[in-house]
Amino acid sequence: MEPTNGFFVFAPFPLGTLDGGGNAFANFLLGQPVVFLQGGGNFYRGLRGHAFNLYGQDTWKVSRRFTVNYGLRYEVPSPYTEIHNYQNLWIPGRQSTVFPSAPTGLLYPGDKGVPRGLIPTDRAAFAPRVGLAWDVTGNGRWLVTSAYGIFYDPYYTGSGGPLQDPISAPPYLQTPQVSVPNFADPFNGQNPFNGSFAHPMTLLVLNPNLRLPYAQDWNLNVERAFGADWLLEVGYIGTKGTKLPRFIEANPAVYIPGQSTQDNADQRRLYSGCTVTGAAPCTYSSVGEIAGIADSSYNALQVSLRKRFSHGLSMLASYTFSKTLDDVSSFNITGSASQSVAGENDLAQNPFDVKSEWGRSMFDSRHRLVVSYQWNLPWFAHAQNWYGRILDNWQVNGITTFMSNTPFTVYDSSNPSLQGSAPEISGFFSSRPNIVGNPNTGTCPNGSAARAPQCWFNTNAFQHAQIGQFGNVGRNTMDGPAFQQWDFSAIKSIPIHERMNLQFRAEFFNIFNNVNFQLPNNDINSPNFGQIVAARPGRIIQLALKFAF
């Protein structure tokens, strides 16, 4: 058995109060983690997989001005198998016949209903596509196009999380989890990596009903060409994602009034194999399950104005007015890190109501305008005097971006809901506070008005949820700062010989040194709650000289 380096998770508790009066760093200094996780065992796996893909397409020219493209793609990606069957599923209440000594709930390839790839091969992945193009006037100046298609993502064949299932399969690899451990000796002198099943086990498994995720894409565009080299395009874009994979806590803790603490979350889990009052060790701790139950939607108006390169000038201006919604915007975005990204957590706040996570995507920006250009300066072309040689052959380029705010989630690291930790998925809890006022108006305790860096939102509008309850703050309901940036470059070409020249480049990122604030601190327990303490990089200048021959 080969144990690896484990890791501790520190939170505002257990040394602290349940109303948010703790401090994670203080617990670190005092040597009191909330959980310890370590893996050990046989890490070697031989994974095998294959995919069969077939497609056909055709073009039907209905008339000189109207064309239809259509096709059908058929995909059969197989789930990954392991040459020694070192994989397992987790179905509570079922006993393995392949591995009779395994705890109830662990099933292996060869058990009834468990194929070698753990989940059934999806043989219904038919993906039709159709596209239409209409030359309205027949001279190519007006064009209407539209398209629809279904696109499957063979996610469960191994990308990302599913590959962790065979690697994490006990007893071949053990991942014992200890709640509120002894910092100096988490296992109290015992060796959990002795070839048997560790207690309690932390699992990372596939949902037995996992299927291929897919997206439906559709669009409608109108293009108008005018002048010699200008093109205006207005379009609608839509996308709907279905059966998308996400992490869920498949063994959540249940709140028991009068008997629930931060320390006994494992004893309160649905399928722990132990009780709050019993002395027997728990069989299971957290069970991170990859389930295909997430959805997403994207709708956008897109407008672009393009000038093809002519007379030394080209440009493109694009504007997008969009809205994107989903159940979760990430898949293992932070791993076991102790800090969230925009409050995003792969775990739902309430594991018994995952669909209540539906809301704005963490990357949802309602408005976005980008203007890019290239201009070859016409002055002093082919000049013979000394200053003409300095000022000729210059090219200037630029990209200007304006983007409205993206959202973030306010969360509560003190975990008043008393849910158990899930270090195999995330290093922090997904509890949220209650909202009791308008966070966009009023003043913060420091006296600053809302929407300022030192008080981005009114922190008095939030309060801790009651013990054992989930907060009513929705996911991604707060707006962060907007963004604007001007990037510029100037390039000078210096011919030396027929096959040799020098190129000087001066590049300025954020040339006006505009301050683009990052998201504010969104943890209600932090002393910096509601404050912006960081910004994106300021002006960056790069100078380069290139010799080409």
Account of the 3D structure:
It is a single chain. This protein is mainly β and 549 residues long. It has one domain (2-182, 198-332, 347-366, 404-480). It is built from three helices and 29 strands. It has helices at residues 24-30, 164-167, 386-391; strands at residues 2-3, 7-9, 35-37, 40-41, 47-48, 51-63, 66-77, 81-82, 89-90, 106-107, 125-135, 142-152, 173-174, 177-179, 201-206, 214-226, 230-249, 284-310, 313-326, 359-360, 367-376, 394-403, 407-408, 434-435, 462-463, 478-479, 483-497, 500-509, 540-548. The protein has a 15-stranded mixed sheet that branches. It has a three-stranded antiparallel sheet with strand order 1-4-13, with no helix packed on it. Strand 11 and strand 12 (142-152) form a beta hairpin. The longest helix has 7 residues, at 24-30. The model has no long low-confidence stretch (mean pLDDT 88).
Tally of individual domains:
1
Ends distance: 58 Å
What's the tally of helices? Answer: 3
Number-wise, the strands total 29
| Rg of Cα set | 29 Å
What form results from the Cα inertia axes? globular
Low-confidence stretches: none
Summarize the main sheet.
15 strands, mixed
DSSP strand content = 35-45%
Q: What helical percentage do the residues reach?
A: under 10%
Labels describing this entry:
549 residues; mainly beta; 15-stranded mixed sheet; 3 helices; 29 strands; globular
Short description:
The chain has helices at residues 24-30, 164-167, 386-391, and strands at residues 2-3, 7-9, 35-37, 40-41, 47-48, 51-63, 66-77, 81-82, 89-90, 106-107, 125-135, 142-152, 173-174, 177-179, 201-206, 214-226, 230-249, 284-310, 313-326, 359-360, 367-376, 394-403, 407-408, 434-435, 462-463, 478-479, 483-497, 500-509, 540-548. By secondary structure, the protein is mainly β.
